[in-house]
Amino acid sequence: EPEVTQTPSHQVTQMGQEVILRCVPISNHLYFYWYRQILGQKVEFLVSFYNNEISEKSEIFDDQFSVERPDGSNFTLKIRSTKLEDSAMYFCASSDEGSRNDEQFFGPGTRLTVL
Amino acid sequence: LAKTTQPISMDSYEGQEVNITCSHNNIATNDYITWYQQFPSQGPRFIIQGYKTKVTNEVASLFIPADRKSSTLSLPRVSLSDTAVYYCLVDYNQGGKLIFGQGTELSVKP
Fold first, then answer.
1. Confidence (pLDDT) at B95
2. Most CB within 10 Å of its CB: which of A18, B13, B63, B100?
3. CA distance B91 to chain A (A)
4. Domains, in order of start, for chain B
């Protein structure tokens, strides 16, 4: 069964450093998403991406964040200058269609720890 | 204004049927009701989706009354491996993004 993969599984970084979280969505999917989950809290939407551009972003997704699909398979989330409060699990998801009712497939997540 | 309300936690025993009810008083005409499951340190996983009446798949059933202001996820004969957080989602007003609430933490005991 096809699945979304994410690397690394755990990333430790110093405050102020840049990090890039990588995702490989399911191959025939066209819509891609990033979510984050701070420990003990709910899953929060960050950004959706379609046709090589951002479709929607939340207020969390400020200028420190960016997303890119550098090739036909990878989808990345970059945080330019990490803050302590960026420590969280980051989940990538993809879907066949961007419709409101479409099932999203989530990856296993990357645990980001900012020291 | 919260879109959904569900119990924070529930306890059950192996082999029992578990019903988790979600309230969504302000559901819009075009909204579907979707449930996701999340195990610790894993991404959420789609369980079931419905619009009205009853939907059943290999893992769960979803009951939706005529007014659609609530829905009930039914898990038959739960096992220890069903211990997880279950999320009810109905907020699809802006494209495909998923808006998660706090979810219901289900604990299945032997």
1. 59
2. B100
3. 9
4. 9-109 (2.60.40.10)
Q: Does the CB of B102 have a partner CB in chain A at under 8 Å? A: yes
What burial class does residue A79 get, using C-beta atoms within 10 Å of its C-beta: 0-12 exposed, 13-18 middle, 19+ buried? Answer: buried
Q: Give the pLDDT of residue B57.
A: 95
pLDDT of B94 over the 70 cut: no
**What is the enclosing helix (H) or strand (E) of B73?**
strand B70-75
What rounded mean pLDDT belongs to chain A? 93
A85 has a pLDDT exceeding 80 = yes
- Separation between Cα atoms, residue B86 and residue B38, nearest integer Å: 6
For chain A, say whether B87 makes contact (Cβ under 8 Å).
yes
Would the CB atoms of B97 and A99 count as touching at under 8 Å?
no
A15-71 pLDDT, tens digit per residue, is 999 999 999 999 989 899 999 999 989 999 999 999 899 998 999 999 999 999 988
